[in-house]
Design goal:
mainly beta, 10-stranded mixed beta sheet, 6-stranded mixed beta sheet, 45 strands, 10% helix, 42% strand, globular, binds (dicuprio-$l^{3}-sulfanyl)-sulfanyl-copper, binds dinuclear copper ion
């Protein structure tokens, strides 16, 4: 490009940016308080003791978790730890769950979650599982919705920034992940300014419909752009996957301007059924890659992991017809497919229109070879040949679109802080409402599926500012609930959310609630250190490791007096909650533990690792108020100096009890007392 044209473009880009910022600011200081209509309170009121109509699963963003809300009330029901340690329930602290956070980079108890995705049957969310991506150290987790627990995590190799993830195919056979950051693949030491020669992107298809067996089915090696978001086709477009990309300029510095030069970037349309066939025909190559797969063993309720060493890598040039590029204005973000599967809607962060592609036209353009060129062997279709229409003057900064199943689309406008409702097919804007402030994603229950439940819409806003009582410089993020059952969108409720819920999914409660697990069967508990009754408890030594087996039941631990531990030992408290009743939990904590408590679901065994530092007597107690005698639920562990001859003792065995009831000096000659 000539430098003059280039300068002009750059300066117009910065003028645009300044205008947009000014626009955003003027909007955000003028909240219209009168938007909530008179019946809003009754629309969101769920009487005490009554249930909400929907479960909403919000990504926790940089909290690494998922939070579950009831809709329409906005009541918080649960926080599910995923890529995090959660002191509230010991997740990632106890020995059984730690392996879930292992990666080939080591133990990583944090990630930046973005998008939740419900498992589907025939394109309709089915309430079996929830998937969520980790963006930073690319991973995808599967949460089981009978237990609201993370059951499986797979690491994505040859990738950096797993942002276009974990969107699913209509049968949940695959979930995907694409590289937000292109990197050298394999990742080797090269100069950063050799980006154009050396950096690549990958699109990963991960087999996801076999619990406990998630695996990378194949990866597709792509040009070094930033792959941003994705969605599967459905109905007529089933078998295709669409990914937005930006930075087709392949800039490696100052992307803010350098990746905003071209007025079109691309959606990659991937025929993954064709890719499957190429893989089956042996056209993929085994590509050495290290990544970890972690899963919860159902019988022991302990996480296990394995390291894998290879993926199947597919090069588009070896598999013609597998990838096409659809030109899309300008640095697109979201890509959303309408319920019929015909329209592919892009959100162009800097675009002045909402571009909509037609799947029918795309197939015709492919058949007609209506190509405007080729990029790294990938045909680029002509924009005019694939365009279904453009929504004119939608507002500023279109990001994401959801659908109500009644022929309308709803697009979030980040810069102008509003939601715009428009009609599929005519592309006319029919309504708009402000959001407070700077909306990112929006979500309609089932709104990205074949069968939206409509009725409600949730805006997830980036900036909260004055919406709640101030809590210092950092505020919770704001969600806003709208009624979309009529012609006009109506604001019903504000409620705060945890972390930054980029995206969310919601589903009628009836699809989940009756399948909810109430307790774990003690008889089926195959944990290696399970204790099924009081008499099975005890203490054993294996070199420097001391294992304590213990039960918890209202309102005691057994054993509750333990001796024979020495400084220098590593102590494992294996505690089994032998209750067989819903919501009767116990906790376990010991003085000086460098760890969180254990929280024990009924029927479950959990293990706390403890390294005592000094001789003495250490109390332990139940941390979860379980009965009127909860405060009595306690015990002691005696720690002696290294080399002490205090015998191992747990007061559950008849022998130990006899010893305790006869007067005793207890300690051997080298004991401290
Ligand atoms: S993204 S809004 Cu992952 Cu759009 Cu956040
Ligand atoms: Cu058990 Cu409190």
């Amino acid at each position: 490009m000539h430098s003059r044209t280039r300068r002009l473009l750059l300066s117009s880009a910065s003028v645009l940016a300044v205008t947009l910022l000014a626009y955003a600011c003027s909007r955000s200081t003028n909240p219209n308080q009168n938007l909530v209509t008179g019946d809003a309170a009754t629309r969101v009121y769920v009487a005490p003791g009554s249930y909400d109509e929907f479960y909403a699963f919000m990504s926790g963003g940089f909290s690494g978790q998922v939070s579950v809300y009831g809709l329409p009330s906005g009541r918080l029901l649960k926080v599910i730890p995923v890529f995090s340690q959660n002191a509230e329930n010991g997740w990632g602290y106890n020995e059984e769950t730690k392996p879930m956070l292992q990666t080939t980079f080591g133990f990583i108890p944090w990630d930046d979650t973005h998008h939740t995705e419900m498992s589907m049957t025939d394109g309709v969310p089915d309430g079996r599982w929830l998937f969520i991506n980790g963006n930073n150290t690319p991973r995808i987790a599967r949460i089981d919705l009978t237990r609201f627990e993370t059951d499986e995590i797979i690491q994505i190799p040859n990738a950096a920034g797993g942002h276009a993830s974990p969107f699913a195919t209509p049968d949940s056979k695959y979930v995907v992940s694409a590289t937000r950051f292109s990197v050298p693949i394999p990742n080797v030491d090269v100069p950063i300014d050799s980006y154009k020669q050396n950096f690549k992107g990958t699109l990963s298809f991960i087999r996801a419909d076999q619990p406990g067996k998630m695996d990378i089915a194949f990866q597709i090696m792509m040009p070094g752009y930033n792959y941003d978001l994705g969605h599967a086709g459905k109905g007529p477009s089933d078998g295709w996957f669409f990914f937005t990309s930006y930075n087709s300029e392949q800039a490696n510095t100052k992307l803010e301007t350098n990746a905003s030069q071209a007025d079109k970037d691309y959606i990659a349309a991937v025929n993954y059924k064709a890719a499957e066939q190429c893989v089956a025909a042996g056209k993929g190559k085994a590509f050495p890659s290290r990544y970890m797969h972690n899963w919860m063993d159902e019988a022991t309720r302990s996480a296990r992991n394995e390291t894998k060493t290879s993926v199947t890598m597919l090069n588009p040039s070896d598999c013609p017809g597998v990838v096409y590029y659809l030109p899309t204005p300008k640095s697109p973000h979201g890509v959303d497919v309408d319920p019929t599967g015909e329209y592919i809607v892009a959100g162009g962060k800097l675009a002045t229109v909402i571009p909509v592609h037609s799947f029918t036209k795309m197939m015709k353009a492919i058949a007609d070879k209506a190509f405007e060129g080729e990029l790294s062997g990938i045909p680029v279709l002509k924009y005019a040949a694939v365009m279904a229409g453009e929504v004119q003057k939608p507002g500023l900064g279109p990001l994401h679109t959801e659908f109500d199943g009644k022929g309308y689309a709803y697009t979030s406008m980040f810069i102008s802080s509003e939601i715009v409702k428009w009609k599929l097919g005519t592309w006319e804007v029919v309504d708009r409402v402000p959001t407070y402030y700077s909306i990112g994603h929006l979500m309609i229950p089932g709104g990205d599926s074949k069968k939206p439940w409509g009725k409600y819409m949730v805006a997830m806003n980036k900036i909260t500012k004055d919406r709640y009582l101030p809590t210092g410089p950092e505020m919770f993020q704001a969600a806003q609930l709208f009624d979309i059952s009529g012609d006009k969108m109506k604001l019903l409720l504000d409620f705060p959310t945890i972390g930054e819920p980029h995206y969310a999914q919601a589903i009628p409660a009836s699809l989940i609630k009756d399948k909810s697990v109430k307790f774990f069967s003690l008889a089926a508990n195959k944990a290696p250190y399970v204790t099924r009754s009081e008499s099975e408890g005890g203490i054993t030594r294996n070199g420097k490791n001391v294992h304590i087996k213990m039960i918890a039941i209202r309102s005691h631990f057994a054993p509750d007096n333990l001796e024979g531990v020495m400084v220098g030992d590593t102590v494992y408290f294996h505690v089994t909650n032998i209750e067989q009743d819903w919501d009767i939990l116990h906790g376990f904590a010991v003085l000086g533990a460098e760890n969180s408590e254990l929280v024990l679901n009924p029927g479950e065994t959990r293990t706390l690792r403890w390294i005592p530092k000094a001789p003495g007597v250490y109390p332990f107690y139940c941390t979860d108020f379980c009965s009127a005698l909860h405060q009595e639920m306690q015990g002691y562990v005696r720690v002696s100096a290294p080399g002490s001859s205090v015998p191992l003792m747990a007061n559950t065995s008849p022998k130990a009890r006899a010893q305790l009831s006869s007067p005793r000096t207890g300690a051997g000659p080298s004991a401290p007392r």
